[in-house]
Write a structure and sequence with these properties.
717 residues; six-stranded mixed beta sheet; Methylamine Dehydrogenase, Chain H; five-stranded mixed beta sheet; Purple Acid Phosphatase, chain A, domain 2
């Protein structure tokens, strides 16, 4: 008699039922290690190839199979129903042996946030978000791809990665979670040559959220057409878990069942093999507790629309850029090929779509490219720090995340003077102070280095790295160093690195502050920090002197610049705002662009010079009125791949006397002159510059291009 591996059950209640099923092995005999789950409990398939699970109507919504390593389900691996087990479409599963040996190395393509849309929109979305749609520019939805385009993009990334075994999509498959769009995405996945493991993202449940309200189970369409909202699988000697982390789309009972499933799943598999966790949003605080007790060594997520790699203790965390809607961190990476091996943590290689970069035409120009560094791992979004004959730049590691730090280059020929490894990537600008440098990693680690040789004088690690993501330059004021973002600040002693005070807004997660380039600015002993809410601090004590509710226009997140006690900053809605630093008072606000502003605005010719998505303009320093404007290029898609009529200037201009160096998104470096912004010269670059520039003492302009190379340019006109 066969032994049935079934969970112990007490007496049945009126609404409790049992689901049973059969496993068919195609071309193979029974194999131990096949499991089935109802989203709460896990049972092993018995030797007679059957299983039995509780299935309570109104509680359990799906069943799925966890095949043994080396086997693949030829039927859908799950079945869903909200009306009890009798309505499950299929509880029998067919398994086929794959042509690979468990334990060998393999490659997964990590993609995320494709936001499939197009066609007619669900009327429930229009009714709920109608006022928001009215604020969008005429082409505001043109960056949302169709399912067919998503399929072409995934195939291209698979081809470029080479040797991909499967694809992991970490959520926001669709823009609004409409059933038709989810079905279309599922059809695209089914037509690919390699399997796809989708993860639920909040956008995939938006239609249900506006219908049911937040805090309910708003992933039923996803569960019906795409995959369970959480599940697990094996591949090549490694275990993978897909989990749901967005609180507005999951009810309390389902969350408890997911917790029970993950605990049981890790108990069964988390000691035998390394584990990779996949989810849509950043894992904090879900990474604590149970995951640390098992062999979890990596975490994959999306949501940020940013290309990042970091560490949380022993866990390597991958966040990947998106092929839709543009990356908030302005990177032009659209996927990540992750290499898993039988030993060690996974490593990765960032992927870029072919033909994504603008086409440039080289012509004779009075602008000379003096040199271009061999190193291509430099911070693409930071202005280099130039001191005398040395250029200091942050170093980024997108493969393992452990080799980030600071590199010192000779200003005359780009030879490396020294390199200091800080463990995590340094994407923020570096601050020079006397004979020291202050560098901050993208998770808030701070290091004070000696200029001459990079020797560490002191270092400090911020708490809760998931809420940090620092892109902004360290602020040195009096004997203090202040680092942070729009929701978090830390003040350290400039001499010792000891923490003097820390401010945390609380309740503002990395999700809310993602991609913001805002940093603290100071006037005297006052610090102004803008964000969803603005604050004025006393630098000595960290005391909040004033709170500014909804400063200026929503979405302030561009590079911030200062002049004579005032600061200037743009936002995602296209507004340029001016604030008084000591009081936080909004002096004026003017909409200067149809879409988001990334560039900083600097004083030039009795006005402010800065870039927008349409080009570069000079604006009144008194009220933001447009004084002059110049557009660059056509069909520029660097920021948003699917937007076709976009011209942009994301890099902050640099001033050299009467001239302005302006990098444009169409792939050129431009020199403008005078109040009318007359174009004096331009030169084609091998990759666009999306950051700002530094002007050296010899008049050369130094910046980092989108490929991570440092380059120096000289104007001979």
């Amino acid at each position: 008699m066969a032994i049935r591996n079934t969970p112990a059950r007490t007496a049945k209640t009126a609404d409790e039922s049992v689901v049973t099923g059969h496993i068919r092995w195609l071309g193979a005999r029974f194999r131990h290690g096949c499991h089935v789950s109802n989203g709460e409990q896990i049972v092993e398939v018995s030797t007679d190839n059957t299983y039995e699970l509780p299935f309570i109507t109104g509680k359990h919504r799906f069943v799925f199979i966890i095949p043994p390593d080396g086997y693949r389900c030829t039927t859908p691996f799950w079945s869903s129903s909200v009306h009890g087990p009798a309505h499950l479409a299929n509880t029998d599963f067919k398994l086929k042996k794959m042509g690979r040996r468990p334990g060998r190395s393999f490659t997964a393509l990590h993609i995320t946030d494709t936001h499939v849309g197009g066609g007619k929109m669900d009327p429930r979305i229009h009714k709920h978000f109608g006022s928001w749609f009215k604020k969008l520019p005429a082409d505001g939805q043109s960056n949302i791809p169709s399912a067919a385009r998503m399929g072409r993009v995934i195939r291209q990334l698979i081809d470029e990665a080479g040797g991909v075994d499967f694809v992991i999509h970490t959520g926001d498959l669709t823009d609004w979670g409409e059933p038709a769009k989810l079905r279309a995405a599922a059809r695209v996945f089914a037509d690919l040559e390699v399997p796809v493991f989708p993860v639920f993202g909040g956008h995939d449940g938006n239609v249900e959220r506006v219908t049911n309200g937040a805090g309910n189970f708003n992933a039923m369409y996803f569960t019906k057409f795409v995959a369970p909202p959480y599940y697990s699988w094996h591949w090549g000697g490694r275990h993978f878990i897909s989990m749901m982390v967005e609180s507005k789309f999951i009810d309390e009972e389902t969350k408890k069942m997911q917790d029970a499933f993950i605990a049981e799943d890790l108990r069964r598999f988390g000691r035998k093999m390394p584990v990779t966790v996949c989810c849509h949003k950043h894992p904090y605080p879900f990474n604590v507790g149970v995951f640390r007790r098992y062999r979890v060594d990596s975490w994959l997520h999306g949501h940020f629309h940013s290309n990042r790699l970091m560490h949380d203790g022993k866990i390597r965390v991958f966040s990947t850029g998106t092929p839709a809607m543009g990356n908030i961190d302005i990177s032009d990476m659209h996927g990540r090929a992750i290499r898993f091996t039988s030993r060690g943590k996974p490593t990765s290689r960032s992927m870029r779509l072919r033909g994504f970069r603008p086409t440039v035409v080289s012509r004779s120009s009075p602008i000379e490219i003096a040199w271009r560094s061999k190193t291509d791992l430099l911070a693409r979004r930071a202005v280099p720090c130039v001191v005398d004959d040395t250029v200091f730049a942050g170093c980024v590691d997108e493969s393992q995340g452990t080799e980030g730090g600071v590199i010192a280059f000779d200003r005359t020929n780009a030879s490396v003077k020294w390199k200091r490894r800080l463990g995590e990537s340094v994407e923020a600008p570096i601050t020079a102070w006397r004979d020291c440098l202050i560098a901050v990693t993208h998770i808030g680690g701070v290091a004070c280095l000696r200029k001459s040789d990079g020797k560490k004088i002191w270092e400090y690690e911020s708490e809760h790295p998931y809420n940090r993501w620092v892109y902004t330059k360290p602020l040195v004021i009096n004997n203090h160093v202040v680092i942070g973002t729009s929701s978090y600040l830390t003040c350290l002693s400039l001499r010792t690195g000891r923490k003097r005070w820390c401010w945390d807004e609380g309740g503002v997660s990395a999700s809310d502050a993602m991609g913001r380039f805002l940093g603290p600015v100071a006037d005297g002993s006052r610090i102004l920090m803008l964000g969803r809410t603005g604050y004025v601090f006393d630098v000595t004590t960290g005391r909040v002197i004033r709170t500014i509710a909804e400063p200026g226009r929503s979405g302030l997140r561009a590079h911030i610049t200062t002049d004579q006690g005032q600061c200037f900053v743009g936002g995602s809605a296209g507004y340029l705002c001016c604030f008084k630093i000591k009081t936080g008072k909004l002096l004026w606000s003017k909409r200067v662009s149809r879409t988001a502003i990334i560039s900083g605005f600097i004083p030039f010719q009795d006005g402010l010079l800065g870039g927008t998505s349409e080009g570069v303009g000079r604006y009144s320093i008194r009220n933001g009125r447009k004084l002059a404007f110049r557009s660059f290029g056509i069909e520029q898609r660097h920021f948003v791949p699917y937007r076709h009529k976009e011209r942009s200037c994301m890099g902050t201009p640099a001033i050299q006397g009467e001239l302005a160096w302006v990098p444009s998104g169409d792939g050129y470096m431009n020199i403008l002159q005078g109040k009318s912004l007359k174009l004096v010269a331009r030169v084609a670059l091998s990759a666009p510059i999306i950051s700002g520039l530094a002007i050296a003492d010899d008049g050369s302009a130094i910046g980092t291009d989108a490929d991570g190379h440092l380059l120096a340019m000289r104007f001979g006109g």
